[in-house]
Amino acid sequence: MDKIEEQAAAFTAEEERYMKRCLSLARKGLGHVAPNPMVGAVLVREGRIVGEGYHRVYGGPHAEVNAIASVSDPSILAECTLYVSLEPCAHHGKTPPCSDLIVRSRIPRVVVACQDSYAEVSGKGIARMRAAGIDVRVGLLEAHARELNKRFFTFHEKRRPYVILKWAQTLDGFIDARRDKDTPIQPLWITNELSRGLVHKWRAEEPAIMVGTGTVEKDNPQLGVRDWHGASPLRVVLDRQGRLDRGARVFDGSLPTVVFTTRADLADGPGLEHVRLESFEGVLPRVLAWLHAHDRQSLIVEGGSQLLASFIAAGLWDEARVFVGNNFFGQGVPAPRLDSVPALEADLGGSNLYIHRNPPVHDLPESLFQV
Questions:
Q1: What mean pLDDT is reported for the chain?
Q2: Residues labelled as active-site residues
Q3: Counting Cβ atoms within 10 Å, is residue 30 exposed (0-12), middle (13-18) or buried (19+)?
Q4: Where are the alpha helices (DSSP H) in 254-364?
Q5: Of 71, 140, 228, 366, whose CB count within 10 A is highest?
Q6: Is 40 helix (H, G, I), strand (E, B) or coil?
Q7: Predicted confidence band at 92 (pLDDT cuts at 50, 70, 90)?
Q8: How much is the pTM?
């Protein structure tokens, strides 16, 4: 058993309750703090929470700052334990180092869920607090904390965005009817209103959304957030030959859009940028590298079938969210295939949702399904 496991085994049920509160607070920052991580903090004195806070918005005060500021009598900080879901920072970014504030506040004990893997922090905050004589313990609900910030950890450890695949399929395994841009068949709904509302919630939580040429031609999607509150993601479109009609909704200028293409004669415009490639060989890693360089921590891929299958074949996915409607097509476009067992299942009132993870994980938080 390593050091962190020994520490985790020594934590009490009461301490777990405080850390669960940190994680609950942290989740409120989803969709608002990226590329920073979601962090929650709780101050406890004599078995009672006396202060708490979370990172609310990118560029704003961190969780520790908000928690300390919430304490009405700063003199009691010297008698408190600070619980925080991620290692306090030790560098000057948008805000000063939180570890320095903790030291100045004379907080004697700090319990951290997990170490930060960002190179500017990565153990430095823990070391700074310990050097100041603070009793720092690490590892309480570490797996839960890493799950909460799966986008952040993937971004820094794998040097690419966290990739979420999303599609809907029929009971007989089809993602769409057979149609093309000249076929007068409107998009066929496989799922229900609840499922579609959930999709718009997800779009508000991710900084980028991606589709292929065929999806734009057949469905003409806007890819924004309509049925939920929150910011719409960056639209990422693959258009290898530059054949898409510039009157399509993804080019309407209402949202930022980036198009990957081999065409050199396509003009940029308001909110529209073309990334010109010599070829589309190995295009997916190149798209992910571009998104990483532009601080997009996650990407949701909404189609079509060929693009989704390409991500699966390349192993470049972390999560797949698959809706299965209560209907049959008989024939059509086969849905992508996953050789995995769902980590989560949910009944959405006539549709079912299955969550797959790569690699497989268990005990995922049910809050994923809150609408």
A1: 90
A2: 64
A3: middle
A4: 283-293, 305-314
A5: 140
A6: strand
A7: low
A8: 0.88
